[in-house]
Amino acid sequence: MYLKHIGSRELTIQIDSLKKLGDFITYGIPYDLNLPIYEDSKSSGRLSMINNKKVLTLYAEIMSADIGGTIHRKISNDMYYNGSDWELRKEIGLSEILSTPNEMIPERFRLTEKEFLEILASPSTFATLNNSLQMKVVRIKYMNRISNGMTKVIKLLEEEKNNLKL
Q1: How far apart are CA 5 and CA 93, in angstroms?
Q2: pTM
Q3: Alpha carbon of 3 to those of 10, 28, 105, 123, 126: distances in Å?
Q4: Counting CB atoms within 10 angstroms of each CB, which of 3, 27, 103, 153 has the fewest?
């Protein structure tokens, strides 16, 4: 939606709304998978005592998604510090101008509406925002894989616990 609006010849959305969308695209998704019980079970050898193949398969999927997400996060950080995000920041001075209300930006970096629209219309801005959006979409997919796997593991373990009570 954001890219659709900045790519059109006429601005079809209020600048404040556009900046809110820009904030969504440019804001990272910090996460660290923290599985102390899994890690403890793995290091102590108790993980091999799990007889439920579905649970083990799901743990493998969760760990695979976490590894992929970690690699992707490193690529995303590299893009921010050394890639297209960095190039755009050098060009425009402060990437926050794409996502932060003008009154919250240091005065020397504030833009007029015309300057803001000119930056949005530049190919480097469009490419950078497109890269950021793609990175976010992939990060969300990895996080969804982890979340879905964890939900299934919890459900399977609850079923096993309930079966033990019978």
Answers
A1: 23
A2: 0.70
A3: 13, 18, 23, 11, 7
A4: 103
